Amino acid sequence: xxxxxxxxxxxxxxxxxxxxxxxxxxxxxxxxxxxxxxxxxxxxxxxxxxxxxxxxxxxxxxxxxxxxxxxxxxxxxxxxxxxxxxxxxxxxxxxxxxxxxxxxxxxxxxxxxxxxxxxxxxxxxxxxxxxxxxxxxxxxxxxxxxxxxxxxxxxxxxxxxxxxxxxxxxxxxxxxxxxxxxxxxxxxxxxxxxxxxxxxxxxxxxxxxxxxxxxxxxxxxxxxxxxxxxxxxxxxxxxxxxxxxxxxxxxxxxxxxxxxxxxxxxxxxxxxxxxxxxxxxxxxxxxxxxxxxxxxxxxxxxxxxxxxxxxxxxxxxxxxxxxxxxxxxxxxxxxxxxxxxxxxxxxxxxxxxxxxxxxxxxxxxxxxxxxxxxxxxxxxxxxxxxxxxxxxxxxxxxxxxxxxxxxxxxxxxxxxxxxxxxxxxxxxxxxxxxxxxxxxxxxxxxxxxxxxxxxxxxxxxxxx
Length: 464
Fold this sequence. Notes:
Layout: H1 5-59, H2 65-68, E1 104-106, E2 112-114, H3 127-131, E3 134-138, E4 141-147, H4 157-207, H5 222-270, H6 278-305, E5 314-316, H7 318-328, H8 330-336, E6 339-345, E7 351-353, H9 355-371, E8 378-386, E9 389-396, H10 418-423, H11 430-440, E10 444-449, E11 455-462
Parallel strand pairs: 6-8
Antiparallel strand pairs: 1-2, 1-4, 3-4, 5-7, 8-9, 9-11, 10-11
């Protein structure tokens, strides 16, 4: 049988409240009983003291007080009537036949002169018992010591009915607490389980392919944090799925364009509709090269995704790598009227990295910089070391990047200027490969740019 979390929470709340109500009722009942005992004991002490004082005032001594209080075998007639318990403060007598604990009395030397059932007349009481006694004073003079009885006092009919009414009130209050606990448990349990049910429903929808499903966050506690985490996960899954679809479409487009060109020209050449010329062969070679580059880029990204991208690390110098990349673009930069500067500041002798992969990274960055830098501009390659890290900057004075494009710049097939990059035969994978290769080196890459003020790519690498 399927267990319900709501029922469990309701049962837990009710159980806690029931136990608490029973405990409080028991403690209140015991406190009331103790209060009544204390009240009756004080009342009985006053009556006992008054009787002894009367006897002492009449005789001037405590000798024979046992007989004077009617506790001997003879039928002494006290004023209140033989066999009747003393009247209470409310004027009521104790119930007939009720056996209240008796008070004893000793003289100043500790000898019992009124028996309380535990000690007989003439017994000498220990100092420990005397320390718990109540001094008996007449006219400011201590003439004896009252021995306090143990046990509970008998209740009058009125007092018994009061305690019965108190028991009924406690029972009614306990039932009210139980009912309140059940209502509160239902309300709290539903409040706690409602977002969990919504999360369960959304999870099932997500499992059924409804990517991007969101739940309403109604709390700021742990359940609310779980809901927010689910919403972020769902949104990310939806974004990843959208990127995958876009990437598939972009790959198909980038493969179809050169393949269409190659197929069309080869078919025309085979049918002798076109004459073979060096220019046409060069164009076919460029399309084939573009296809090869695209396949290589996709392979690098696939290896990076699977964690199988291998690096041939070795101790290398950074400055020769910068010079090599700058030299490979020097002719193109001269034709475009762009200056390339190299700076190397306080670099370590060697850094452990894959030189070929790092050249690939810098080639992609410099290629992008050169593409968007106008005549008269400059590109700066700078490397420096700080706090056990090596930093490489590729900065240009080109057109810059829009702020809305920067967060997506390292996404695959993302093109800030789609028409211009298509025009140059770019696939949109260059910066994605840069990020993958740098992360494979346990480094990071970031970009800062403003439109019209150029761009700055910063690579951070560990020394070792």
